[in-house]
Amino acid sequence: MIVLLSLSHPPLLHAKSPAKVSFSSQSIKQGEVLLINVKASAAIRMVSGTMFNKPVHFYGNSKGNYTALVGIDMDTKPDRYKVTLLIEDKEGKKTRKSYRIRVKPANFGTQELTLPADKVTLDEETLKKVEIEKEKIGKVWDIFTEDHLWDGNFIPPVAGEMSDDFGLRRIINGEQKSPHTGVDVDATEGAPVQASNNGRVVFTDDQFFSGKTLVIDHGLGLFTMYFHLSEILVTETKIVEKGELIAKVGKTGRATGPHLHWGVRLNGARVNPASLLNLSINK
What we know:
The chain is mostly beta strands. The strands form four sheets. Strands 14, 15, 16, 17, 18, 19, 20, 21 and 22 form a nine-stranded antiparallel beta sheet that branches. Strands 1-2-4-8-7 form a five-stranded antiparallel beta sheet, with no helix packed on it. Strand 21 and strand 22 form a beta hairpin. It is globular. The N terminus is likely disordered.
């Protein structure tokens, strides 16, 4: 449901603007995606914005609808945050509007495990390998494609039951480990994996933890990740369409059985893929 919000204070430049602003919610949890829609008249030339002191990237369509997706990182401190929009018409006149969005705490849960030390502690050679791999995939998040490549709503990449363990904090042998930054989809080995939306393949690799790994750039800082694959069927730089076969489910890397780990990064924010699926996104 789209909720129309009132201004937190009057516009700085013009009292009236030929645009209506709405948000997917005025109260959103850690790890979710905020959708901003601006319905503009033909007089509007551009819409831009900021949140968390970072740019909010809008794209428009022929009907005068401007849309932006904002990632609320899983570690964002619960509080009220300002969203500032700048709306410019074709004559160069600008209207600045500010809104407040409340970020609520999410109950990610904690899992405590006791495992044999040799299953947890990595040897020096493996540690070096993991650090190199982490650096390689980390460079992907610096890529920025200045247009949205997606086409409307995102779809699940594989048929199967999707876990609700996004953000789960694991404590192994008394030591806190990195939280779970995606969702796991239960599927049989070899099951087809499809692109969740249009985009460009920007990373493929076989990594220690994530196994055969694939990342798609959907533009404007939005990426989807597919881990533990048994086979990757596309190559880097390939343009893929929503629903296109890109890989097969596997159990490569540190996986106890066949499944797909599906993750999303949005302008650096680690967000729950299920949140992206729940949005009605303009083309």
